[in-house]
Batch of 2 targets.
Target 1
Amino acid sequence: MKVAVAGCCHGALDKMYETLELLQRRHNVRPDLLLCCGDFQAVRNEADLRCMAVPAKYRHMQTFYRYYSGEKKAPVLTVFIGGNHEASNHLQELPYGGWVAPNIYYLGYAGVVRFRGVRIGGISGIFKSHDYRKGHFECPPYNQQTIRSAYHVRNIEVFKLKQLKRPIDIFMSHDWPRSIYHYGNKKQLLKMKSFFRQEVESNTLGSPAASELLQHLKPTYWFSAHLHVKFAAFMQHETNSKEELPKATKFLALDKCLPHRDFLQIIDVEHDPNAGDSLEYDAEWIAILKATNSLVNVTQSSWDMPENNGLHAKWDYSVTEEAIKEVLEELNHDLKIPCNFTLTAACYDPSKPQKNMEPVHTINPQTTEFCAQFGLTDINDRIQQAKEESSGRGECEEEEEEEMDSTGSAEEPSEYNTDNSGLSSFNPDEIMLDEEGGDEDLSTCSVDPSPDHPPEFSTSFSDIRVMPDSMAVSSDDATDSNNEELEKSGGSRQGEERSPTERSLKRIGADENGNSGVKKIKRRNQAIYAAEDEDKTD
């Protein structure tokens, strides 16, 4: 079957689906499935806009609301993960995944589904070490800290995914797996994006959590976005035994969704011709959710996942064939995901703007039904209970954050204005992108990046390398400031834990000739949201 893969959508659904229709008209290419690797921006109304961690001037309604209201319907089944530019309040309603609109499915914080026998997994958000070991505690209305931490990857999601034993065909993450740039045309990447050099050479660009999953899952395909540049790599994995067959992963990072950009990739994937056309639950993943349900945490206290270190009675939560069989029997062997999309918020009406609409914490009926069916904890219900208990004890949110967040971000104050309309133009989750050369294709494809020349995925890979164990970055290497070695040395963290000023200066150093790079660099969110200006210049 044909699968279309898109990078950062940024709410431009009309543009994305129009491109697919153009491919069909001109080349008779009709994808059976569309995957989107984050920054989907499922914005329903003005309140959702206030829950996006971007400056107010970059908040645009875009076109998702038309699909949410039913005015339009996605012409192809669309499955997506979350990124770092999302209506976090909306996606938070569906921690285990669910429909955000008819024919548009969100995978949740982490998830695995099946379509025509193809196994598709993904993890939402981006990696930040100071939030990695916390629970999912955030809920609207967000403050200037939680509006960002809401989309940070958590160790429990990585732990769940690492319990998978059966092969994964396709996996999606928003940020790149750390080290993946060593398996593609790194020289060309650094030529076009020279400000990545320091992080590439120090092996700190990308997510260590995603790198850990890549080494463990070894999927056939891995797709990412986030950095707004197309880049391909081919990784040959090491085998654990002589009996194990060699495995390789084809990696592709996609560009953002803008006119005249090669932001879509079409691939041919082997599928089960006897399988139906419905999106299905994955029985092993459901069994893993049931097995790990006791580990659900909705506090901001940092904690570690169980491991074989003598401190935990149980550390292996992978599931048996018997447990998988029980899930199948519970569902009467009918794994079809019900089409139970429900409106949970008012839809944007261009004729009646409501600029003062406030976000509220909502428990989605889809999540309630899913949790009841499989005996799982409704995370949002648990958060709501915790809030009510805290309110009953007379504890204020600011005091609770100050007491519990001993490993949190040190650069942000503990008291915030809940009105996010005036968010600072600085977002610590952003990186910087060069103003020049933003349209380069680093995938080594020889096709013209336009609908006139449909891309061929098989031409994207020429470099085969084996990933050594020494290059795999464990999440344990990226824990917070209570890391034992840091406690002994008293040293400060680098990278994510630096102050905002230090982080900015790190990427605005002089080049090899001693020339300042200040004029050539701008904040990443400006590059992302200045689409209107780019359209005009194009």
Target 2
Amino acid sequence: MHLIQVDSVQRWMEDLKLMTDCECMCILQSKPISIEKDEQNELLLSSQYNTCDNLQLLLKRAWIISTELTRIAQKLEKNRWQRVHSMTVRVNCHVRSMINEYNAFSRNPSEEMHQYEKLLIDKCSEFTAFTERCIQTEDEQILKSMKSCINETLTTVAHYFGQLIELVLTHEAQNLLRQIELSDSMYITELAISSLFSLTQEGAHLCRIIAKEGGVVALFKICRQDCFRCLYPQTLRTLASICCVEEGMHQLEKVDGILCLADILTDNSHSEATHAEAAAVIAQITSPHLTFTQHLSSFLENMEEIVTALVKLCKEASSGEVFLLASAALANITFFDTMACEILLQLNAMKILLAACSDKHIVDTPYSRDQVVTILANMSVLDQCASEIIEGNGVQLLMEMLFERSSSGNSAEVAACERVQQKSAVTLARLSRDPEVADAAVKLSCIPRLIKLCRSPTERNNSDSVLVACLAALRRLAVMSPEGLEDSDFQQLVKPRLVDSFLLCTNMEESFV
């Protein structure tokens, strides 16, 4: 179960006011009492929560139960019977509280859900009784014989719990989608979409449930009604989340979602926020990391107008976030189909992207520069690109990107900086087949920088992919300008096989003491 990553102290502070003693809750019929420092955090449901808050509490409760069941299995392996029993009592409490909490706000739960609730409660009671018997005996043979029964009961509890949660989440997704489809109220529709988006943030499994229950169909229906225009950004953001799973992509194809997105992107009457969220959906469905994009045949039919609209959005972006979404979509499309690079060349996209990079208000993060250099790298396979790079002072930009470093130390930002360095070196290597580009690179001192990146692991954050790209670029430039290298650099970084130079550079800081 996915939980948002936050600072542990912050999470403790949030949970502190909700703590209760689990064992005493069972005895005192869930009445909150003062906490004991040895006890686990407990959740208490407030009647003021709306549907979205109720679902978040349900998911948090489910995560706690799932974690406790895992810990019980671990303690059982070590024969920690006292701990197994206390944790079983706690799980029993959590399960009953979760069911009571859910039934307090649920509308029309199915008969199947009630059946699983009863099965789960009965099995939890049986589980507690088993573990209680275990702490009352010290006979190793009896404990050994009971261990398999307890393991079997634990497996059954986990199965019933998983089935119940699946039914609950499916039921809630159905309720939200029914609201979206049937309500004429802007306020109710907006709340339902907001709740649906919150569910999509809980992981791929929930996205699959929503997709299977018709979430993509319902949301595109909203995007085809002018009366809901103000909800388009929120609706498209939810669609982008659902389309991270294969089921969502299949549904998008069935409802002609690509055509709808193309219409939104090319309609100048829509707000920039709507265009940006439509670009985010395009970026999601064309992601090179997904393995199930091949069936998007309708995308190729609409690709030219989509690419044209995205280039326009990059050119007119009023913020770094809008530019990032539009450029990410373009970067992914250049992987998706090679024809996109030719369209970009015809649209003078190279000039637009290079100009944007000089505006620190628009291209303001390594993530944005990563998208730009990805497009440049993929376009650099075309011979016509060299002249565009020279005209737009692109070699200077690529040189600057070789110095990309993270200012925060954040792991995601560090990874983005590595990609920027790698792709800028790849682009230089590809473009340096043109003598004019190679000459410009040499004059800008690209060779010393590439040597530094090869020889100093800290300069490239110990990245092997950056090293390989820099070695390739250095060898290409060395052919065009051999006088730019010292003999030792030539002998170690250019003359040997690339794999030998790679091994030499990766071993430079090893200690053999």
